[in-house]
Amino acid sequence: MAPAGDREGYWGPTTSTLDWCEENYAVTWYIAEFWNTVSNLIMIIPPIFGAIQSVRGGLEKRYIASYLALTVVGMGSWCFHMTLKYEMQLLDELPMIYSCCIFVYCMFECFKTKNSVNYHLLFTLVLFSLIVTTVYLKVKEPVFHQVMYGMLVFTLVVRSIYIVTWVYPWLRGLGYTSLGVFLLGFLLWNIDNIFCDSLRNFRKKVPPIIAVTTQFHAWWHILTGLGSYLHILFSLYTRTLYLRYRPKVKFLFGIWPVILFEPLRKQ
Which GO molecular function entries does the Swiss-Prot or TrEMBL record give (predicted)? Predict the structure, then answer.
């Protein structure tokens, strides 16, 4: 976390329960944590195109919701790091819970008939979200949120490992890449928290172009945004394989992965 003594800017005093290691208002008077803010673009723009592609392909609405949920997380995180206000913090953290619940629903419904609805699972995840929201608004303890979020991510990891081990082993590359990228982001998130004082001292001694590479919370956004996007692709690939749509992963401009599949036939 950030040491005390950061300057104030356009948005006034910090009211959030968290203040990260990036120096506040160091780049511009209008954005509290500049790099932690702009790094959210990876969670905002690509999922919008993914949602549009899902609509055009006639995919089930839960996959459209997955893409849009990731976009909402990115937008909430943008607002939080730009302002460091408590209300914006909630706009970041609570959608993380809601989006993961959507991901969990998609992963556990991969092998069901088209357009089926699992009302028991849906009710359980909605109830879980409501309980987490209510408790978090009451206790305002970030560790509680982090533990609840970690439980959902762990559920996704276990389900993904089951799929690549017992159902579609040839998806190990995509599944483990998603997991590995996410875990790398989690590692950098921890380094940013634990060694914040050392990182700040290092940034003072090196050129800005080098200092910016040590903004590890921004890297957390980039890597977990990419990891979450890849997870949606993995979930979508699994689902479309089961529905026999012959999906293929392609790379736009040679770098950005998307899933292409044959137009869905009416059944």
Answer: calcium ion binding; N-acylsphingosine amidohydrolase activity; zinc ion binding
Torsion, CA 213, CA 230, CA 166, CA 168, rounded to 10: -130
Domain ranges for the chain: 34-260
- Residues 85, 76: contact at Cβ < 8 Å? no
In whole angstroms, what is the distance from residue 177 CA to residue 181 CA?
6
Three-state SS at 170: helix
Does the annotation place 93 within a ligand binding site?
A: no
Architecture of domain 34-260: Up-down Bundle (1.20)
**CB neighbours of 18 closer than 8 A, spacing ≥ 6?**
1, 89, 142
Closest CA to 105 of 240, 256, 259, 239: 239
Residue 266: both structure tokens together: 């009416």
Q: Which amino acid is at 45?
A: I
Q: Does 33 appear as a known binding residue?
A: yes
Binding residue per annotation — 231? no
Q: Is 20 annotated as a binding residue?
A: yes
pLDDT digit string (tens) for 216-235? 999 999 999 999 999 999 99
Please give the pLDDT value at position 247: 85
* Span 112-124, pLDDT tens digits: 998 899 999 999 9
Q: What type of residue is 86?
A: Y
| Residue 19 is assigned to a ligand binding site | yes
CA distance 120 to 115: 15
Per the annotation, does 120 bind a ligand?
no
Q: What pLDDT is recorded for position 61?
A: 95
